Amino acid sequence: MTTAIAFVFTVLATMIVLFVSDRLRLDLVAIMGILALLLGGILTPAEAVAGFGDTTVLLIAALMIVGDGLLQTGVAAWIGQRLGQIAGVNERRILVTLMIPVAILSAFISSTGTVAIMLPIAINIARQAGISPSRLLLPVAYAALTGGMLTLVGTPPNIIAAEALIAVGRPSLGFFSFTPIGSLVIIAVTLVMVLFGNWLLPMRVVSPTEDTHGPTLAELVADYRLTEGLAQVRVAPDSPLAGLTLAEARLHSRYGVTVVGIRRWSDGQAIPSPARAVTAATRILAGDLLDVIGDDAAIATMCRTERVIPQTLQLDLPFGPELHVMEVALTPRSRFIGQTVATAELRQRFGVTVLGARRLGLPFTGDLAHETLRFGDTLPVAGSPTQLTKILNEQRTFGDLAVVALPRDLSTSSDRFHRRAWLAIAIVVAMLVLMTGDWLPTVTVALLAAVAMVLSGCVPINDVYRRLSWESLVLIAAMLPMATVLTKTGGAALIARELATALGTFSPLVVLAGIFIITGFLSQFISNTATSVLMMPIALVLFSS
């Protein structure tokens, strides 16, 4: 082993440790690896940055834009809505109805985008059927991942494999080269979930419901155990809060208590008016009934200090037209993952109040404000139609939150095609025909389709750069030079020789199984994209010798 190979292996081992530790972002680790090899004299500057101009990166970026066209125009959501209508309430039927179409959809758009679309639909179907959302979310995730095995563009490792073959002068993989094996894998995964899911998946039964257009207060209390933090208090005539705005009262900063809504009595009324939404400028009046949420001890302290009177919680009091409750869930690429409810600042961003949270079908029981958010967490948020519309707009633009349940008054035609949906479908069909026919290079076809999506208005030009997954693109671009390094220094040949020595007495199928197992093992700890970049040159050298 030469000094150069030893240095390269040391850098790669360090990168793998950092990947596994998850202390730094994957793209940052990859950039650090490039810098180490550049400073060590292993890579030239041109070789170090070659990945950023590689056709693989351009192809993946173009496909992200094409997939986003299907999302933006409502095609993917429409498919999901139709699935929700035919799924029924039988769990096995639901699994088949969800998993097969999800896998097919994931063959053409990213698995992340597919899961983001199907997340709220799966949660709603679970609620209607009275089963735990986790019993559907896990199979949906498996289907989205295995669906990437169906086509050349289904997942970045497929593209990397095709480009690696071209780089060594071998014929590239065809668009449907992966389909036979991918189809068998999807069928196998679906059968396992259908036949054995009853034992493998978490068993948590919830009450079925037919209404997914915005939960009532009583439903929220039952689903999220809000009675542990929800209270109603009445402002006494001599309360120091009377006449103050919510910004001036500073109830959250002083007591950790959040005002969700305000109810007022008019002359002659036996019950207060329906709750109205609040903002920082909302003024508190004597006699107001405040819907508040917070720790029991904090609410008690506020009542004593501010002379407000605790009331019996009346769950049958209605919300007014100015106050609605919407349920949202965190998508796979949400910026809020890893943040707490407090640091996510949803109230500052949208003006809404987070009422509770559920994870895998179970409500949070601890300190909600400081609970770290994860993918799939569902949050009921209260606010005015204007405030909730901001979340709807955010969902379309950034995709951090997926709407799970929408108030009827805010229900839109989201289950119908956008007027440009047929254009998006036509562009995708044309792209698939050209890729299958092999008349033009795959990257050229993908770039043409991406430009067509933008020029046709299916993807607003201002959204293009916001919707790209830059972390994934930089990771791929920074990892591609690693393949160059392994080939250039002889590291790939060294590993291939050792594997050939260890497995040389066995048949080629056993050697192939060995490569498969090693690759699968590494991908459990580091990105499958990074794994494919590292293993591709080794496999090519091994099977060429």
Automatic annotation (TrEMBL):
Superkingdom: Bacteria
Record's keyword terms, sorted: Membrane, Repeat, Transmembrane, Transmembrane helix, Transport
Gene3D superfamilies with a match to the protein in the record: Regulator of K+ conductance, C-terminal domain
Spans traversing the lipid bilayer: 29-50, 57-79, 99-124, 136-155, 175-201, 421-437, 443-461, 468-487, 499-518
Record GO terms (molecular function): monoatomic cation transmembrane transporter activity
Subcellular location field: Membrane
One of the GO BP terms on file: potassium ion transport
Domain (RCK C-terminal): residue spans on this chain: 218-308, 312-397
SUPFAM superfamilies, per the entry: TrkA C-terminal domain-like (SSF116726)
UniProt protein name: Citrate transporter
Organism taxonomic ancestry: Bacteria, Bacillati, Chloroflexota, Chloroflexia, Chloroflexales
